[in-house]
Amino acid sequence: MEEMLTKEDIKAALQRIGVKKGMLLYVSASMKPFRYVVGGAQSIIEALMELVGYDGTLVMAAPTRHLCDPVEIRKVPRDQVAEARRNALPFNKKLSAPSGVGEVAIQFMRNDAVLRSNHPMVSFLAWGKYAKLIIEKHPLHFGMNQDSPLGKIREYNGYVVNIGVDYDRCEIFHLVQYQTMKCPIRIYSCPIEKSGATSWIQILDLELSSEGYNEVGKLMEDKQIVKATDLGKSFCRLYSAKSAQECANEYFNSI
Questions:
Q1: Residue 143, phi then psi, degrees to nearest 5
Q2: Residue ranges of the alpha helices (H) in the chain?
Q3: How confident is the model at residue 74 (pLDDT cuts 50, 70, 90)?
Q4: DSSP letter string, 54-109
Q5: Half-sphere exposure (CA, 13 Å, Cβ side) for 99?
Q6: Helix, strand, or coil here: 47?
Q7: What residues does 126 pair with on adjacent strands?
Q8: What letter does residue 167 receive in the DSSP assignment?
Q9: Is residue 53 a contact partner of residue 21, using CB atoms and an 8 Å limit?
Q10: How far apart, in whole angstroms, are the C-alpha atoms of residue 155 and residue 59?
Q11: pLDDT, averaged across the chain
């Protein structure tokens, strides 16, 4: 039988890579590699919270791209798009569940004192000392640029911790794509609540790609800026957001 993990196992692994009190951490985590975690996703969240303490800060992505214009969702037949738009639910910071980020982020959102940025497509969750500073004034257009919560993590010398995920889940690398603006620019339509009714707004953003992100991770490992340890049948890694962006710049400027 594969290894069972407890909260204390997770804390020990995080301590081995250098997670400690007062750190600002951007967290990407998945439960999929672990057969059984006692307490489920909440054990991962509490392990992180207990290590960084309330003097520290935790941040996770909480995207809601599934709320975008139904014409973008292939499951909606063309002849039903208009009806889907009429019945769409607007983005709600408390109720709109994140999609594509897994169980840990969804469970994180349920915890007391977790704040959420007010972006209808690419919001972020934050808990701890700098939570409000991280999530406030989230730009509507190009929502993961230098002025976004991602940019603030880099600006405030934060770190990235990956638990059970590879480098292709490292959203900090997105900052380089916003710097170069080489990705296609698209217009997205998103539903928001306005005067008690659902309104559709248009948002400019990049069509991002994670192609090459694992290669950036290998470059970081070659430079020995990643601290890693085994966790059950998977692993966890810790690295500086600033160093990650610098390595991404180096890699993408060399190809």
A1: -70, 0
A2: 7-16, 41-52, 81-86, 103-109, 131-135, 149-155, 174-180, 213-222, 241-253
A3: low
A4: TTSEEEEEEE-GGGS-GGG-TTS-GGGHHHHHHTPPPP-TTT----SS-HHHHHHH
A5: 9
A6: helix
A7: 59, 115
A8: G
A9: yes
A10: 14
A11: 93
